[in-house]
Amino acid sequence: MYINLPEKRYYAIGELAKAFNVNVSLIRFWDHEFDILKPKKNAKGNRMFTPEDLKNLQLIYHLVKERGFTLDGAKTYLKEKDKMVFDKFELIVSVISYQFSYVE
């Protein structure tokens, strides 16, 4: 899935939910379930996601929603394949981003 968000230091949970076309509660749930997500919390307690969190969310979305992994399956996959998975996924995202920028 191609996510078209501007480069920022932090993203609000609502921005991410809208970009992924999911409910805010799902992002909150994944934050609870996946250790690789580490959003900061502001003074009000709102989650503020970094660009690294955005990449991790894209990967989780890809595994769970697009490839049909169970949550336990996605967690296991991420733990076992750690570095290799992220490298492959970054390559896929860069190719998709290039294709979208070429079309526009």
Question: How would you portray this structure in words?
Answer:
- By secondary structure, the chain is mainly alpha-helical.
- It has a single domain (11-103), classed as Multidrug-efflux Transporter Regulator, Chain: A, Domain 2 (Orthogonal Bundle).
- The chain has four helices and three strands.
- It has helices spanning 13-20, 24-33, 51-66, 71-103, and strands at 11-12, 40-41, 47-49.
- It has a three-stranded antiparallel β-sheet.
- Helix 1 (13-20) packs across helix 2 (24-33).
- The protein starts with 10 loop residues before the first strand and ends with a helix.
- The relative contact order is 0.14.
- The model has no long low-confidence stretch (mean pLDDT 85).
Features:
mainly alpha; globular; 64% helix
Summarize the structure.
The chain has 104 residues and is mostly helical. It has helices at residues 13-20, 24-33, 51-66, 71-103; strands spanning 11-12, 40-41, 47-49.
Number of domains: 1
Strand order of the largest sheet: 1-3-2
* C-alpha end-to-end distance: 17 Å
How much is the radius of gyration in Å?
14 Å
Overall average residue pLDDT: 85
Q: What is the CATH first-level class name? A: Mainly Alpha
Number of distinct helices: 4
Helix fraction? 55-70%
CATH fold-level name: Multidrug-efflux Transporter Regulator, Chain: A, Domain 2
CATH architecture: Orthogonal Bundle
- Helix-strand makeup class: mainly alpha
Question: In what range is the share of β-strand residues?
Answer: 5-15%
Parts with pLDDT < 50 across at least 5 consecutive residues: none
**Counted beta strands:** 3
Major sheet description: 3 strands, antiparallel
Element string (H = helix, E = strand):
EHHEEHH
- Global shape: globular
